[in-house]
Every structure is written in structure tokens, then in C-alpha cells.
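From the shared-data thread, chain only:
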Amino acid sequence: MENYKQYIAVDLGAESGRVMLGGVGEGLLELQEVYRFSNDPIEEAGALKWNFKVIFAGVKEGIGRSVRQAQGQVTGIGVNSWGVDFGLLDKNGQLLENPYHYRDRRTEGMLEKAFKIMSQEEIFENSGIQFMPLNSLYQLLALKMERPEVLERAEKLLFMADLVSYFLTGKIYAEYTLAGTSQMIDMRKGEWSKVILDRFGLPRHIMPEVVQAGMLAGTLKDTLCQELGVEPIKVFTVGSHDTAGAVVAVPVVEQDWAFISSGTWSVVGVEIDKPIINDDVLKYGFTNEGGVGGAIRFSTNLVGLWPLQQCRKHWEDEGEDLSYRELVELARESEPFAAFLDPGDESLFRPGNMPIKINEYLTKTGQDQLTDNGRMVRVILEGLALQYVKTVRAIETIRKKSIEVIHIVGGGSRNELLSQFTSDATGKKVITGPVEATAMGNVIVQSMADGQIESVSQGREMVRRSCNLKTYMPSDNESWDGHYRKWIKS
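Structure, as C-alpha cells:
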């Protein structure tokens, strides 16, 4: 194939890491999974952390396998991950300790403590980012208050994908789309907020230079090349935050569209040119996160399939080994609206026996408990669709502009029942796919950095031509509208 090039996309998720081999040529994009490894959190001294040694070993194994599969013809490597979490390097460039997991309890109560240092309005004015206890700012505040000696030893802070890239290349930087999730970037300027850092007494010197996606970060270190038996390979900055990568691969043709990046989290939003930072945005809980090419993802981070994932894990532990497809079929056959659930309730945030947590929520809100697996799954999916309605309507209110179509990308796009619920609940046309949007966006940005393709829009056209997309139309919007009004009051 003429002008055909291959790229390695390292896609780190909160449940697993994957290394994908992408091929670009003749207006098409192909992608195949080469290696997958578990990414389970670990307990260390009573804290929930990531096992970075296991993560990096998985990345190396995947790169080695990908190069062999590509017969050595690999143009570049790009790494993306979830946001907010970070590792700290000491003066010798070594990791001080395993990075904390964003679900660790150390950030409980940190928002209230932060607002005593700097008001919510001031923080938002200087960042434009949604308030979540897991944001890097509050993780650092907890570290400063509880373990200041660790922060004093830190020479550099690197977010997860950038941390992996550092150990691949030796280069230190903070990729813009990933750094923006921290709530320490002034999104109007695209640089670290000196106001926030100084008010919280956080050391400026640990913050790396902010760089944009689509740049040459470095080359695979000689020691790694020898270890893996490969030639030097370029490492590019990509939309290192997984949602930024996913949005690059949204196969849009419409003018007025919204996206849902659906997985453990649901990120719902629109792509805009400049951040929107005002009282309404703060009130509705939206965020302005960086996108590829200077775009802004005006969105909100919602709990996604996490409750369903935790339910399935519990049922599996209890001997009921049901696939997601089987669970969705049970939900499809179950009674509609047996209960109303807010999937984002704080009581459902942490790992544990999710069916019990959901039933405790239902009892607390005056509803009957659920004993049937199918009903519980359906209540979760209905709750997700209803929170999508609330979010989409808020976006339309803030922007004073209607949304015509919703694109669902990521692993959750395979859930046909949730996709139909989303169309019915919002009254919008819904298009699903690609499933591997983050890895595809990773490959597209690498191809742009290498000069093979010219723009994000060209990459999106390639996605449209290369993927099987599915369209859903609303069929029961009036009924859902009535249930939405009840859900809002529940």
C-alpha cells in the first residue's frame, strides 16, 4: 500500500493497559490489539496506588511484540492514559513511590480545605476546570498536608502517560491535554496557573514545561532498544488524555454535535474554540479541558459504566460469571424504571459490593430494593441515560445552541441498549463508534506529527471510511421525558 505507515498506540486504562498497532494509508486506518495486561490497583501502607512497575513492564512487552508483528516497520509510538494521577521523580530521575490512585481516600474533605485557602470562584476563574476531589490539585494538597517530606523530595511531577513516555525516552514534559485535567492550568493561557500554585504553596519547579500534542517527544532510549531488540523509534506526544484522543476520532460530519466518551467514566461535551468560564459554567459543573490542535473540550465528567463494572465483578466473585452482553440482555427483558438511580452519587464512587451500595442508596431515597440482576443493570443504564439528558440540556442552555446528533465512542458504544436509551431519553439522533476511539485518535495524531496526514478533520474522515458505525433514532422520547421529570425530583 502506497505511503503506508505503522504506529504503536499505548492506551492505558483504569482496568487494563493495551498496546495497539495502527496502520495508516490510502485514506484508511486499521487497528489491531497486540497485547493487553491487567492494571489493578494495589494497597500500599493503607493507600490505594498504581503498580507502576507492572504498568511499564506491560508497555515494554507490548512494544516488543508490536515491533515484531510489524516486522520492524514502526514509525512512532504514542502513549495516552486517564487524567489527574501522577508520579513524582526525585533529583536522580527515579520514581519516589508508586503513584496514588484517584479513588484513594486521601482526598476526602480536601475540597472544603482548599476553599479555605482559595475560594471556589477564584479557583474556577484561574483554571476553568470542573471541581472533583480527585483532581491533581487536591491530591497535591493532601500530600502537602499529610506527607510534606515526600513533596519536598520531589524534583518533577509527571502525569501517567507522560511518566511512561519519560521512562521510554528520558524526556520530561507535561502534555497539554493531560496537564489540563489537574486544575492547575490556566485554560485561557494554556500554561500553569501561577496564582493557584502560589496560593496553595505548591512548588513551581516540579511542574514540567507544557507541550502540545503532535510533537516529537524523543526517541526510544538505547538501553530499551537493546532490551527489546528493536531499532530506535520516535516517540510522539499525542492527545495523551484518553478523552482528548477519543474526541480526535469522533467521525463527525455535522456542525452541531456532542460527544459521549463512554467507559468507566462518561465524558459528555462539545468541542469549542475557546474556554467558557462564567458563573453558569461553574453552577452546572462543566469543565474546559484541552484538546488536540488548541481545541477546548467543553464537557463534564460523569460516572459511566463503573457501577455496572463493579456489579459484574461482585457477581463474578459470587459465582455468577455473566458477560456484559448477557447482563444487557437480562436488562432488556426487565421491567422499565423499577427504580431511579443517580449513578454519580458519592456513595457509589469507591470499590466494593456495588449491589449492596445501590440498594442502600435506594433505601435512603425511599425506594424498594432490587434483588434481580437484570433489573439492577437496567436501573443503572437508565440512570446513565437520564444524566446524559440533564447534561446535554445544560450544554444547550449555556451555549444557546441546539445539538443535532450525539456521537458515542469508546467501549460503552458497544452497549446497544444504553445507546438506544440515550437516543430515546435525549430525543437526539445517536451514532456509535468507533469502540477504539482513544487508540485511533492516538494513531491519527502520530500520523499528523509525522506529516503523513494534515489535520484532525482528515483523520476523522479516515475513521468514517474505516469503521462500522451504527445509528439510533429516538422512539419513546415522550415516555422518557416524563420519567426524566420524576428522576430530577427523586
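The two ends are 58 Å apart (CA to CA).
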